[in-house]
Fold each of these.
Amino acid sequence: MRTPRITALVCTAALAASLTACSGATRPPQGTTGGADFQVSPTSPAAKGPLSSFTWSLYAEPYTLDYALAYDYPPNTVLANVCEQLLRVTPDLRIEPGLAVKWTRPDPRTLVYTLRPGVKFHDGTVMTADDVVASLKRQMDPATGSPWGSAFKTVESIEKSGPLEVTIRLGKADALFHELLAASPGTVVSAASLAEEGKDYGTPAGELNCTGPYSLEKWAQGDSITLKKHPDYWDEKLTPKSEAVRFTFVEDAAARANAFLSGTADGGYMVPASSFAQLRGSGKGRLLFGPNTAAANLAVTDFKGTLGDLRVRKALSMALDRANIVKAAAGGVGVPAKAPAARGAWALVPEKTASLFDTLPEPVYDVAAAKKLIQEAGATGRKVTLATSSLSPEISVVANAVQAAGRQIGLDVELRPVSPDAYSSLFVDPAARDGLDLVITNGYDNTPDPLEFYQYLRTGDFGNYGSWSDAEYDLAFDRANTEYDPAKRTELTAKVQEIALAQLPVIPVYEAPYSVFLGKRVTGAPTGIAQLYYPWAATIGAAQS
């Protein structure tokens, strides 16, 4: 629940008509989308031929290409094609083998990973267990400063147990740790390159030596990042269809839409909702929607201030006109959020989604009752400071809606403008949040397990921006995380969800499908949030043979 951008799995054709029949929806309930018509699928039509290159638009320049520090959409969108993990999240939100060809759990506290043989780094050297050990241990080193460090909090040791085998021992059972090895925590890079690059690693001055279908050719800071095809890539199913990929950085939403329309960018993820109508009617390409595990939330960053009173948090939630926020912020393509973790995050055991998520009540909109709560709390006239930014129109829309809601119920909601670069810092630098009561976040799961989102609200977790602490919550989370059976774990996760909704350390706002624009010359891209770790660029090719 960490990133600033504000942006449903597809069923089989037989199930697609039923909202409760699968882990995500092709279309939200009637009357909840502001009139927008959209459908969700995990992939675009397959490529019909190769390309010499294509250009991809990012909404911001990556602040790093260091896998251990990558904690936002721009860096992970690039790295997904360059570096790989022990496990892999597929476009339809499944977890499958990646650089680890298999794994076993001899006991609840031991994991043994057998590595894929013959995998070559971009410099031609062969991946070994030593590379895996060095890559994973680096995230545990406080000197690295990895935001993913908390994922390793139960890890006691990571050891080479054979030339192509790594054994990890845990201090206690931890179901999420294994799953997160399909995301940044499981990234494997060349140990030799880490030692050689030192402080330059992941910067424009450094090099990357990974195993993905593309290698880093050039990072021209402030201009572009260029990747080139890795000729010795191990996965024949994902042999790149394009020889090169060029990433450009366009922060302004209107300018980004113009890049799509003019063809200076062939495509891009996280399309500004303010451009949906224009792009749909342009005839210049296709606007597609894919599976998403994200929800737009208001994360409380100061529990010692006005929002430390639960009545005030509940009142602010009740005063939000979510239906109109969906229309204005998401182009009508979305639904009011029922919980901090989105419906699409419940993909691990799809058959449980109907009973554990769909039965949740719709969020209450009652300004009069909210105003009464504010009065009971003695909070009338008290200040709440919310960060806003020009990073995306959605942030401004939500911020203005929160300010208007606060005024209606007697709160003084002050908007603090933050530059796009500084806004990203709010999620990695606690000092950047000083003086703030709320930030607008896009809380998403990297894996299809809903429990993953809720780990960020544990006492002391890096993603717990307001340092919220609740003993009952921590206990419920631990019970769920020590249950290795996915079906049983989702049942226990429902209790964690219940506490989060009762205490509101984050206030759910809305959820929407993932978005991607593809110009007329390209196709083949996965459409959903799995693109953060799946080598999506490898499948993009020519739309015409």
Amino acid sequence: MTTAQVHTVHGLFEEQARRAPGAQAVVCGAEQLTYGELDARANRLAHRLVALGLGPERPAAVALGRGPELLTAVLAVLKAGGAYVPLEPTGPDAVIRHVLADADPVVVVSDEVHRVRLADATARPVLCLDTEADALAALPSTAPDVRVRDADVACVFYTSGSTGVSKGAQIEHRNLLHAYRGWQEVYRLTDADRILQTATLEFDVFTADWLRALGTGATLVMARRNFTLDRTAELRELHELVIGERITVMEVNVHLLRRLFAHLQPLGLELGSVRLLSVGAEKWYLDEQLRIQRYLGPDVRHINVYGVAEAAVDSTYFDPATLADPPEHPERLSLIGVPFPGNRVHLLDPQGVPVAPGECGEICLSGPGVGRGYLNQPKLTAERFFADPARPDLRLYRTGDLGRLRPDGILEFVSRDLGPETAAAVRVETLLRGHPDVRECAVATVDLEPALEPALVAYVVADPGRAPDAWALRSHLAERLPADALPDAVVPLPGLPRTRAGKLDRAALPLPAPRTEPAPSGKSGRRPSGGKGAAGVWADGDNTPGVWVGLVVLFTVLARLSTSTFWPGSTDLRLVPEPWATVFQLLYWAESLGAGLGLAFLLLGGPALGRFGRPRGLTVLTRLAVFWLLASWWPQDNFYRTTDPRNWSTQGTLVVLFNIALIASAAVVVRFLVRQAPRPGR
């Protein structure tokens, strides 16, 4: 049976298991399974999943640590007809709860060490492979009789959330089969390959790695640890794994590649048997790609891949060997090449009209790899997925990324669409990358105050041993850009924040520090340049620490002095013995200090809250709530101390005015803190 005749993802693997059952399928440290062993284990588990109600178009979450049992579970879900939902069991609680609530899987496949945590996040059964090993071993080793169509959903990829709330992209069997055929043709995969798998389970490249290996009859070598997530991992260990396991094909993200080569180059080390190095997940500049190509030599093929989970992982690729001549300024270019076989790329303007060659447009992907859309998100699916005008039977996906088609027919990745600031952000980023002291940089639009336009902020990471000053970097830009194209701030960082998939986490980029001197007039609607710490940072009002301290002291003293006027006798301590009289005096001063802090925050706290980017109404309510939480202790206790304890109407009124209002104020603050804020780089 040819690949074209196989109509399910697990069917590819089953063909290889029938062809060579004794061939090595997966290796993870000392553990390994042959194709025949992996097939039998997956079949037994599939019978158990069917008994639990799993079937076509129904999801099952897979939440296991790295090892052969992870592949067993994935294949078993597919053999049972279900769609697997990759869920990293060590991930943040919020992510686990979100995925399990949104996907609502029939069952969660895991092991005992993660059972309690997962069971706390869902009412669905948690099937632990280790504790049920004996029962599973008694089940049939042949596949259950389940009819699966190529149009059925095979998996649900929850996006990394680097540009918004994580969404479940539904990918059908036919989407992954199409992607596999493209990889097979471009990568020239054979059953002699040994393919390294370093990606985390929840990242779509994890699926790409195992499908490329197990669909071809090759060996999948799983790294024991996730080198993207484990910041303490020594890259020496990764290099030893590549050499020791005779890896021939590996895909890594840009961030991990930089770390790996920072380890290799000073020692003059190479990659052994590797013949294909595929790099993706983030913008990879051509100068880096060419530099690595020169270092490793012509025997190692370097490919820059571009794709999204919504379109079955990879859609285009660039091989620098196809360049006729090296372009000028490779440090300013990120080339993503040409579509994988069968894919199409459209560059469209905001109205959906194709742009002219050489012009910048939104990258839109079409072809058999584009998935069904987002789970439980019909509105968002309708906004991002369309029928391909040339092939109405196929879907087109709007990525939100920008690109342009060069005269040589090669697609260039420009940027994530940042709105009106995109062109300026691209120019700033490329110029900063050309600075000799800068290793990495990112430019984002940051929403701080609803009344002002988003600010353009450049974040830079220095080369090891260098520490570029923010002012020096800003001067570097000022010599090459007009004033209205300069960023509002340049912020040095020890490293860019990353998602669990290794991508830039725009939501985690820090806010620039406030100015410490009066702000000059600046660009229309935008924050002016200047300031300390981060060059070109706007003012947080003109409220210096001295202003805050002065107002707090003034209001505290006024509150303390006016207590006897409003509540005569409430602070009379003549009959209270020491040291309790002193304790109560401290309490009364603390209450007055709360009033002073509350009043100062009411007057000065607006800009500080505005930096969180929450809605104006919620921000105003929170400002009042914080004031009430701080200031109300002063009148509250004084009212209670001067009220007859048998006066129930007054006591009840005080409870409503203060206690319940305090609870409501706290609830407003909680809502303010947990509400999803606008993300940098819209």
Amino acid sequence: MEKQAYQGVALKVENPITWSDVPDIDVIRVGDVYYMSSTTMHMNPGVPIMKSEDLIQWEIVNYVYDILEENDEQLLNYGKNEYGQGSWASSLRFYNDTFYLAVASFSTDKTYIFQTKDIENGDWKKSSLNGVYHDMSLLFDEGHVYMIYGGGDIKVIELTSDATAIKEGGLNKVIIPNASLIAGPNVGLPAEGAHIQKINEKYYVFLITWPKGAGRTQLMFRSDSIDGEYEGRIALDDAGIAQGGIVDTTGGDWYAMLFQDCGAVGRTPFIVPVEWEDEWPIHKNVYDIKHASSNSVIPAIVASDEFDQALENRNLSYVKNIEVLQDQGLKLPLVWQWNHNPDPACWSLTERPGYLRLKNGRLSDSILDARNILTQRTFGPECSGRVAVEINHMNDGDFAGLAGLQENCGFVGVKATSNKHYIVMVLGNSKEKQEIEAIPITTNRIYFKVDFDFKNMIDQAYFYYSVNEVEWHSIGKPLKMKYTIPHFMGYRFALFNYATKTSDGFVDFDYFRVNKTISKK
């Protein structure tokens, strides 16, 4: 991978720029730094803020919220959940020394607008609108604040000057009716995913559509006024790469920041050169668009963790809205996210220094119903994660281990039953689970590994265990991974512990270590 050089020299990079699940991206430049937001659905903390100096290499520097709400859906209560809901397609903007981010949630039926002066370290002030303004995009325009949104018909609504409420008597109308038609009459997915930008006194709206029998297609429209007549054309129709806006470099070059559905790993970000012709941002060829990057690199948004207290150089998360803080402020690095809202009383980095303790605070039917499941993204072309876990405080009916998390999930772990422990490999989903293999063990320390193969969309996961950290044994059978809409998210590494009979057991994870190669080729 070659880093870019500014001052008019085009970027040279293999796509995807990050072979991991970073969908619904919105990218802005502030000075010579770029910031990007992305969708994380039901994961918390939510809406990551990523930073880059070259549009290629990104790291997480902040999150917009720790928890969005505390309803039954977010807390996994009474059979409810937030899978595939939570944060959807955020819009990131910078105006008048303030950063703004809008995001909608179908589980709460609200659209949220956050703002902060310090995007990398600051707290975010939250306001909300009733209802979901689908795939919204913010525009600050000479004292006016607009929000573009919708599917099929693209609409605009005007907000108050502080972007906290709908402006009474403000602009509220359809600006692009039936926007999908410019891609042909066979509409599959109506146009959505709006990104609006004002460039050189013209208004540009970027959308996607998905014609029947074709792939995801990037559209672009332009007008001389926010509610004027829009003319449109296809911006890019190649390999399903679409949805996003454009951004310029300090050297004057322009790029579209889009993403592609890439199988079980998720939706991966792509960078597309843009050249201006007759005031249209023409999307050019994508490097290696047909063959994703073969470089085996661990992206900066994934990392190993020893769970120790040598924290001086760790990229730490913050926990502002949760009342029960971890002792002495010990927190998890920003690469980690919890599945749904965590229970802060049931995890600790200090009760046993050097370990992550996951405690059972309630009973659960399955891993998909359990709280305090700690996750990181997987990545391509292949990746492997392993953990060491100590299990001598598990109770009858407890399960703990390492999973490939999605609706169709699989895990290798320990099952405690009748004062005995078994290594188990389990496949399942939200409706059923199947124990593929069980092996009795007597040791209190055990090692688990899951390998993910995303090459050429093979999309297989393999499960292993070890009792000595040297000799690894395959267990069960491969998981055929599938990207499913119920979760709307690529597969994740997941450290878990849940109880089915009594709720006072716990396990201690010594480490999580990630690798860019797998055992099975």
